[in-house]
C-alpha cells in the first residue's frame, strides 16, 4: 500500500477517482432502489388483484343468495295468496328497494366534485410562493 502526501498530483487524481466511484455507486444505488420499489409494487398489485377477485366472487355468491331467498319468499307467500300474486308482491318490494337505492345514490353522486379543490388550492399557493419566495 502506497502512501500519498496530501496536496500532491497523485492525491488529486485519486480524489477525482473517488468522486467518480461515489457518483457511480450513488447511481447504482438509486437504480437498485427503483427496482426494489417496482418489485414491491408488483407484489402488492398481485395481492390486490387476488383480493379483488375474492370480493367479486363474494358479491356473486351474495347475489345468488338474494335471488334464491327471493324465490323462497315467493313460494312461501304463494301458500297464502297464490303464486302469481306472491311473485308480484316480491317484485314490487324489490322495485321499492331499487328505487330507494337509486335515489340515495343519485343524491350522493350530485355532491361529488370532479375537481380536486384542495389540491388545486395548494398548487396555486405553491406557484405563488415560487414566484415570490421571500413573502
TrEMBL record:
<keyword id="KW-0812">Transmembrane</keyword>
<protein>
    <submittedName>
        <fullName>Putative membrane protein</fullName>
    </submittedName>
</protein>
<keyword id="KW-1133">Transmembrane helix</keyword>
<feature type="transmembrane region" description="Helical">
    <location>
        <begin position="83"/>
        <end position="102"/>
    </location>
</feature>
<dbReference type="Pfam" id="PF07332">
    <property type="entry name" value="Phage_holin_3_6"/>
</dbReference>
<dbReference type="InterPro" id="IPR009937">
    <property type="entry name" value="Phage_holin_3_6"/>
</dbReference>
<keyword id="KW-0472">Membrane</keyword>
<feature type="transmembrane region" description="Helical">
    <location>
        <begin position="57"/>
        <end position="77"/>
    </location>
</feature>
